[in-house]
Each structure stands twice: as C-alpha cells, then as structure tokens.
Design a protein that fits this description.
about 120 residues; 3 helices
Length: about 120
C-alpha cells in the first residue's frame, strides 16, 4: 500500500508540474490586431496610351496620313517603303495606307488622326 501512495504522490506532483509548466508562458504577448489599418488610397495614375497619337504638326490633312509617312507629299520616302515591302504598285502608295486594297486601313488611319482632322 505504501507503494500505491508513492505512485499517487508522484503522479500528483507530475500533473501539477505539467499543468503549471503549460500555463506559464512568461510574458504574455498582446493579441495581434484582427484587422489591418485601412490603407491610404493610391493616387490614380494617368492613363497613357501605348502608342502616342501623332501630333497635329505631323498630320497631312490633305491625304489623311502622318506627314512623316506621306509619300504623296514627300516622294523621298517611297524607296524606304518599297525596301520594307510596304508598297502597292497598283495605286502608287504604301500598302499600309492603301484604303482601296484594304478598306480597314481607313479606320486605322482615322484612329491615328488628331482630333478635329
């Protein structure tokens, strides 16, 4: 019986030790906030087009193409277009500007035109 009492005493001490060790964490850390403070809204960045539209000074109003690419006003540009393979022999202008061969080109050029042109 003495042995049983010693075991019970040992178990009681072990349980008390285990209970006190698990409950003692030293310093208690404050609970982390459950919600982050509201973030400051970022200022809206201006929308920039991927391709800059031509400036009004670079627009040939007579032919509806950028002045810097108007072969009808500047014949010196023709060899460069021909060298790139961008030439319509039938109509005598770059294929990229030939609305007769490709009507969709007209819409592309209209989209490039500065406002009011």
């Amino acid at each position: 019986m003495r042995r049983a009492n010693e075991r019970r005493a040992f178990l009681a001490v072990a349980l008390l030790y285990a209970a006190s060790a698990s409950g003692c964490g030293g310093e208690e850390k404050p609970a982390a906030p459950t919600q982050a403070p509201p973030a400051k809204p970022e200022p809206a960045s201006p929308k920039v087009p991927l391709v800059a539209p031509p400036k009004a000074a670079d627009w040939c109003g007579e032919h509806g193409v950028p002045e810097s690419a108007c072969t009808r006003c500047n014949a010196d540009l023709v060899p460069e277009f021909k060298k790139k393979g961008d030439w319509c022999d039938k109509h005598g202008l770059p294929e990229s500007q030939c609305v007769t061969c490709d009507p969709a080109v007209a819409e592309k050029l209209k989209a490039l035109a500065p406002a009011g042109k």
